[in-house]
Amino acid sequence: MVVLVSLLIATIVVAYLGWTLGSGTEAPTSGYVAIALGVIFSLAVGFGLMAKILLVRHGHVEGMCCSDQLNPPRKAVVQRLSKLLRAAKIDTVACVYVRRAIDN
Q1: Cα distance between residue 76 and residue 67, in whole Å
Q2: Could you tell me if 64 and 99 are in contact, meaning their C-beta atoms sit under 8 angstroms apart?
Q3: Which of 5, 21, 62, 74 is the most buried (most CB within 10 A)?
C-alpha cells in the first residue's frame, strides 16, 4: 500500500511540474494527432481484450464450448470473431488462462 501511495504522489508531482513548467507553450498539430491516435488505439485494444474475455467466459469461442447452440446470426458473428482472434495468435494462451480463472 505504501508503494501505491508513493507512486500516486510521484505522479501528482510530475503532473503538476509538467503543467506549470509547460504553461505558455503551444502543442503542434502533430502532437494532438499523436494523442488522438494513441487514445483510439488504446481503446481498440481494451475493447478487443474485453470482448475476448467475455466470449471465452460465456463459452462462445469455437473449441472452448458449443457454439452450435447459438442462433444463426449470432453464430456467424462468433465464428468471425473466433477467426480474427485465431489470426491474432492470442486465442490459445488467452483461452487457457481465462478458462483456468473461471474454473477456480
Answers
A1: 10
A2: yes
A3: 62
pTM: 0.42
70: cell is: 447459438
Largest CA distance in the chain: 61
Q: How far apart, in whole angstroms, are the C-alpha atoms of residue 12 and residue 37?
A: 25
Query: Could you identify the residue written with the cell 488467452?
Result: 94
| Full pLDDT tens readout for the chain, 104 residues | 899 999 999 999 999 998 888 777 888 899 899 999 999 999 999 998 888 888 777 665 555 444 445 556 666 666 677 677 667 665 555 555 544 554 44
